[in-house]
Amino acid sequence: MGASASVPEQSSVHDFTVQDSMGKDVNLSIYKGKVLLIVNVASKCGLTNSNYTQLTESYRKYKDKGFEILAFPCNQFLQQEPGPIEETVQFMCERFKAEYPIFAKVKVNGSNSAPLYKYLKANGGGLMGTAIKWNFTKFLISKEGLVIRRFGARTEPSAIEDDIEKALEEPYENQGE
Q1: Which residues carry out catalysis?
Q2: Within a domain: residue 75?
Q3: Residue 27: which domain range?
Q4: How many Å apart are CA 60 and CA 83, to the nearest integer?
């Protein structure tokens, strides 16, 4: 990948450091060898109930097989994640029994887009273009930290379980959208 002012030079998701919901730095290299589903989430979206319910179900089904969900709250789409991060974490954990990591709020689009999301969009391929269109856009990441596939907001987590299973079985190449 060539140098660009807008796309980070990192070669995998594992090269990034992000902040958790408590404001502590988390080096994503701790997830080497795990399949990841990175999702921008929101608590007040029409897709919230089905996505959070299915994310929890998928996490419980695959977590012992080397799968992690990384949730990044985002308030860029009609202010559907307006409150402080503490409220988001409480909502996700109490109402939807989320056991997966929840990170600090991020911007996924625009000049202040989080570096991780710049990388994901640049390497996600597919018909979606570079912008994230809505809450609950999902990126499936290989054990090596590479983007396997990007899924739009309306693709429910249960619909991608075959892709998760394939990624858990062996190295998996980018499939686009």
Answers
A1: 45
A2: yes
A3: 13-169
A4: 27
